[in-house]
Amino acid sequence: MRTLKIYCKNLDRYIDASGGDTLLDIYFRISAQLPFTPICARVNNKTEDLNFPVYAPKVVEFLPITSDSGQRCYIRSLCMVLYKAVHDLMPGVTLRIEHSISRGYYCRLIDFEPDEADVERIRAHMAAIIRSDMRFERHEMLTKDVIDIFRSQGLEDKVTLLSTRHELYTVFYRLGGLADSYYGALAPSTGLLRTFDLRRYKEGFLLTGFDMANPDVPPQHITQEKMYRAFTDYLAFNRIVGVRDVGELNRAVNEGRSAMLINVSEALHDKRISTIADAITERFRQGGARVVLIAGPSSSGKTTFTKRLAIHLITNLIEPQMISLDDYFVDRAHTPRDESGEYDYESLYALDIKQFNKDLNALINGEEVELPYYNFATGEREYRGNRIKLGDRSILLIEGIHGLNPELTEQVPHDMKYRVYVSALTTISIDDHNWIPTTDNRLLRRIIRDAKYRGTDAASTIRRWPSVRRGEERWIFPYQENADSTFNSSLLFELGVMKERGEDILKRVPHDMPEHAEASRLRTFLSYFSPISEEFIPSTSLIREFLGGSSFKY
What we know:
15 helices; 21 strands; alpha/beta; 5-stranded mixed β-sheet; globular
């Protein structure tokens, strides 16, 4: 058998391998030299499972569970263990893994609400499957044959998805004879999944993996009641329009119902914004809510939401005035730095909180205030004569990532504030066992926007994303539940609309760049969607902030 030279990035040297060796075979030869047990690997900067066979020279990097790709692989593998446990204990019951919440993944059993004893039985069976160290067997077959396998198991959601993808071959996995498919690689065997938890939650249960800070324990749960309600409302909307997953979305597109989906999705957005505007107006008329703080993570659509909210407030006879938090940056010389020594503009303490509170209270008290202007070129604050004063029907709209943090406006009376949290809480699933991470939706929005408006390629945006996410975890997500209202900025149709443009931008990421792995993953993700034309998207749509063609100025 032909000998190959495999370059191992972990060891920074070549390793001999035989044609047909799997990544697991190669790992076993060098296991004593690695400080961790890998769960998957990158091959030529593309993530693969460890059963991947090698027939030509490759660059290989083995990945631990604590890497981004490793963590995703771990959770996907746990999901298949959960599916097998439900299948074994409750034949004929449909498992649906719906979305992330409370540092876990919310799961339901369709037409069956489990009690504590049911959840404990499932958890114990999962633990037994993990102890037995069963193999995840990777297979690739003609799609028509895979459809027959899934149909025999009652997985009609996967049948619909594969029937609308029109791929000749499909990759799937078997665990103890049970077949399933996942959006990405799985672990080589269940024995690697030692840390997990399953607990009853709402009408179903919550599946959790490991804590990134301590992989030997599950993460601590946090209360996210408002986020749960936001997800639940949109899931109910999806059921009403008959589009719960990508297979059903593709079928609707193929049947010529794209315009209808766009219209009802936009109408839902408009109704939600109107409801929030009415709540703010009612609070205002009672003598409060002079300051509306709008917060949310990157690419959640905060800017367009704020502009549309202003329009609805005007129709309620309220006069909105805008203040930019960016203009309250401290001089660059006083800006805090992050762990890498770079200026940390996402830190709360990059803002002059004292001056910000002083100006807000002065405005609330009817005084005229000269607003600052932050000169990004010089890194210094300037005053250019921009003076404002609130009238009897005036209200301040302030958009920024720190809006829900109590410390930002700690000197402003509580009843004078109304807080809105905006995020793209993606509620459509790929299928019953594959949810769509909200971060993927936002990252694709940002990649498309950066390429169009900022001349930034996908590799640069992907490279920056982990830093953005760290800032969100520290400065935004801990304060989500402080919101008076939550607005879900996702649109049922948007991933179909972003498909072709996103694929075109992502395919330009060179193979020899580390960012190619993420670009490849996102291209695989977009491949599930049928393309949807922008033709019927209105100019006021939130998605226009990223695609272009908006009637708003940014």
